[in-house]
TrEMBL record:
The keyword Metal-binding applies. It holds the Pfam family Fer2. Its cofactor is [2Fe-2S] cluster. Keywords: 2Fe-2S, Iron, Iron-sulfur, Metal-binding. Residues 3-108 form the 2Fe-2S ferredoxin-type domain. InterPro entries: 2Fe-2S_ferredoxin-like_sf, 2Fe-2S_ferredoxin-type, Adrenodoxin-like, Beta-grasp_dom_sf. PANTHER family: FERREDOXIN-2, MITOCHONDRIAL (PTHR23426:SF65), FERREDOXIN/ADRENODOXIN (PTHR23426). The keyword Hydrolase does not apply. This is 2Fe-2S iron-sulfur cluster-binding protein.
Length: 108
């Protein structure tokens, strides 16, 4: 088992930064992105009530857990959300996400 999970994060300007996250950290992707100082509002604190932590999954969508009804409902309210849109607060980090590539949106 690897000691770290590596996730490539692309910002709005196309710059990609590799995040190294300790395996077994028991945090959501939203919490890690905020700690890495990405411009994620996460207004509701991770309850899937605001969609201000929306991300786009570029690679690895098949490794994510299925979306909850609450997540689907929030994404359904966003006019620009697509089939690879997810709420970072609803993604729990584990070793299966190693190599994931996502795009973040400033001030969601």
């Amino acid at each position: 088992m690897n000691d770290s999970i590596y996730i490539a994060v692309e910002n709005e300007s196309g710059k990609v930064r590799q995040l190294e996250i300790p395996n077994g950290i028991n945090l959501s992707l939203m919490e890690v992105l905020k700690a890495a100082e990405y411009d994620i509002l996460a207004t509701c604190g991770g309850m899937a009530l605001c969609a201000t932590c929306r991300i786009e999954v570029i690679e690895g969508i098949d490794r994510l857990e299925p979306q909850t009804d609450a997540e689907l409902d929030m994404l359904d309210m966003l006019p620009d959300a697509g089939s690879h849109s997810r709420l970072a607060c609803q993604i729990r980090l584990d070793a299966s996400l190693d190599g994931l590539k996502i795009r973040v949106f400033g001030n969601n």
